[in-house]
Amino acid sequence: MKYASVTTSLPGPRAEKLLNRRQSIVPKGVSFGVPTFVHSAEGAIVKDVDGNTFIDFAGAIGTINVGHRHPKVQEALKNQVDHYIHTGFNVMMYEPYIALAERLAGLAPGDFDKKALLLNSGAEAVENAVKIARKYTKRQGIVAFSRGFHGRTLLTMTMTSKVKPYKFQFGPFASEVYKAPYPYAYRRPEEMTEDAYEQFVLQEFQNFLIAEAAPETIAAVVMEPVQGEGGFIVPSKTFVQGVYKLCKEHGILFIADEIQTGFARTGRYFAVEHFGIVPDLITVSKSMGSGVPISGVIGRKEIMDRAEPGELGGTYSGSPLGCRAALAVLDIIEEEKLNQRSEAIGKKVMDKFQELEQRFACIGDVRGLGAMCAMEIVKGPASKEPDKTLTNAIISEAGKRGLLLLSAGVYGNVVRLLMPIVITDEQLEEGLSILEQSIEAASGY
Fold first, then answer.
1. Are strands 45-48 and 253-257 parallel, antiparallel or unpaired?
2. What fold does the segment set 18-66+337-443 form as a domain?
3. pTM above 0.90, yes or no
4. Ranges of CATH 3.90.1150.10 domains, the chain
5. What is the per-residue pLDDT across 60-111, written as a single tens digit (0 to 9) for each?
6. What separation in angstroms does the CA of 38 have from each of 13, 51, 191?
7. 72-335 domain in CATH 3.30.428.10?
8. To 5 degrees, how large is the angle CA 429–CA 433–CA 438?
C-alpha cells in the first residue's frame, strides 16, 4: 500500500484559492512550509483540501508524538467539553490541572518533592522558569547557549541565537541574558578528537564564568538537552555533566528546556535522562498536548514555592482541554510503549541516514538521539560549507512527492525529522524512500 500521493500541482486548485485569501489577510511574517491546506489528518498521514496525502515527518514542529487525532485524545477532549471548557484555574479550580501536575512531577527525574506549574506555550514556560529561578536565587543573570532556541517573546527571543528570522530588527532585547558556548562536534577543529573538543568547550564554559558573567550573579543556566532549532546538536555526557557540576558549585539553577525533546521523542520521557543529571527545573510543551496548547514548568518543591500567590499563572494557563489532552498523551506513551518505539524508529532512521551519507557527498553529517534525527547538508565534505539552497530544494522536492519535512540549524542547512512516534514501519520506510528520491532529484547525484 502506498501512503503518499500527490496528484495535483502544489498548491492544487482549492489550496490556491485559500492561498490567495491568506495572502490578502495574513501578514507575510507568518511563514508556511508546503503550499497547501490541511483537510484531515490521522496518525502520521495528512490529507490536503485537494485530496493529496502526505506522510508527516514534521509532526507540527514536534507537537504530534502520539499522532494526529489519536482516539484516546479525541475521547478525552470530547468528554471534557461535555462538562466544561474553561473556568480559569485562578477563579475556580479543576481536577485535571491537579492530576496532570501530579503525573508530571512523578515522571520527572529526581528523588525529591516536586511541584508543577501549567501554562500555555513553550515560550511562556521558559519565561516562567526564569521568573521562578530569579525569585528563588535573588539573582538576575540567565545563561543560554549558542544556537539555542527558546521562543519568540522578548525574553525568549533574547535567549535564542538565530538572528534571522527570529531576532532581526526586533530589538532592543532583554538585559542580563548571556550566551555560552555549546559543542558542535561536526564543526570542531580538524586536529581535535571529539573527546578533546568536548573538554575544550567545557573549559570555555568555565572561562565564560570568569570573563563574561560572574557566577554569583547568575540565577540559572537554560539548556536544551538536544538543540532543536539549532540543528539537532547532541552534546556529550561530559559536557552536560560538566556544566551541571559547575552550576551546583556556584548555586546556579540548571533548567532543562524539554519543549521539543520531551515525551518520548528521544526514547525517554525527558531527554535529560540520557545524560545522568537531575535538573532543578524542566520546561515542557509541544507534544505534551498532542496539538492542544499547554505547557508547564516542573521543579523542586522549595524552588517552585518561592513565588507568592498571584505571581504565577494566566487566563488560559493549564486549560482543562490542555490538561485532559496531556493526561491522555501520558497514558498513550505508557500503554503503547512509545519510548521503546522511539528508539526503534531512531535506529531505522540512523541506519538509513548512514547509508545515504555514503551515497551523497552533500550529506556532511548525520546525528540524532532516539527518534530526533537530522542530516546536515553541505556543498562538499571537505569544505563543510552549509548549503541552505540545496536543503530548501530537498524539502520542496519531498513535498511534491508527499513527504512533509522541516529544516533547522543556524545556517538553515539541516533536514530534521519529527515524525509521529506512532508511525507504522511501512509509512516510515516509504517516507525515508521519498527522502532519498528528493535528495537525488535536488542534488542531481
1. unpaired
2. Aspartate Aminotransferase, domain 1 (3.90.1150)
3. yes
4. 18-66+337-443
5. 999 999 999 999 999 999 999 999 999 999 999 999 999 999 999 999 999 9
6. 13, 9, 49
7. no
8. 145
